[in-house]
Amino acid sequence: MDFTADEETPILLGRPFFATGRTLIDVERGELTMRVNTQEIKFNILKAMKYPTEEIEEVSRL
């Protein structure tokens, strides 16, 4: 793979990747769905990329 790393793009996975067993990643839709007990939250990565990284930093610390 030939690419240039973007140091401004945060990685949101703070836990070990395989510990997120109830997380669904839909690459085609750009959605990340996380489930805990009966609660579910969806992140639309494509929409989130439209905002400056300063606003995203707060979400990265959850």
From TrEMBL:
Domain of life: Eukaryota
Protein name: Uncharacterized protein
Organism, scientific name: Trifolium medium
